[in-house]
Amino acid sequence: MTELNQLKQDVINIGKWVDAHNWCPATSGNLSARIDQQRILITVSGNAKGELTENDLMEVDSKGNPYNSDKKPSAETLLHALIYGHAQDARYIIHTHSVYGTVFSRAIWNGEIRFNNYEMQKAFRGVTSHEQEISVPVYGNNQDMMALGREIDTYLASNPSCPAFILAGHGIYSWGSTVAEAKRHSEAMEFLMECEYKSCLLLK
Ligand SMILES: CSCCC(=O)C(=O)COP(=O)(O)O
Ligand SMILES: [Zn+2]
Q1: How many CB atoms lie within 10 A of CB 126?
Q2: How far is the CA of 102 from the centre of ligand 2 (A)?
Q3: Reported ipTM
Q4: What are the transmembrane regions (predicted)?
Q5: Would you say 90 and 78 are in contact if contact means Cβ atoms under 8 Å apart?
């Protein structure tokens, strides 16, 4: 199998994985893989992530413009391009619209979520202790991708090893250098968001 075909298969399989967890209901979410420094493989806008075929994938350039394709890329392509631009070892990006990612972030809206004293923090690359705080930025949701992109760009420029961010009331972006790492970061974020939500119920 060529490297490009392998990437296509990886994205299709990640789509089945997020769908099995119900993290991308309806046609929500988007997925991508870095082909090389110039090209990104990304999901076409508006398709169910559990039923992706090669026709639901397309190439864009490093700025997010369609590359040899007349299909419409994900409406959030710019965010994928920004992540790949800053996180040089990111190879796969997973954007989910899970219930906990959506609901809990509405309580923060703009700022950050700090995860402390969860053993699960060790799922993130380079973290070896529950005492190593993980801070994940939360951005107010915005239909203006350029404006959202500017905020995210500023943060990633000074925090290039950040493994995830959250769009409030919208969903979670996670990434990694391999399929396994991107899925691990994504799953850890989903778990921690559910824990934080349930912790709030305990404190009521
Ligand atoms: C019902 S999903 C609304 C759009 C969105 O947030 C999303 O993740 C999917 O957009 P895309 O253009 O990638 O299909
Ligand atoms: Zn989205």
Answers
A1: 8
A2: 10
A3: 0.99
A4: none
A5: no
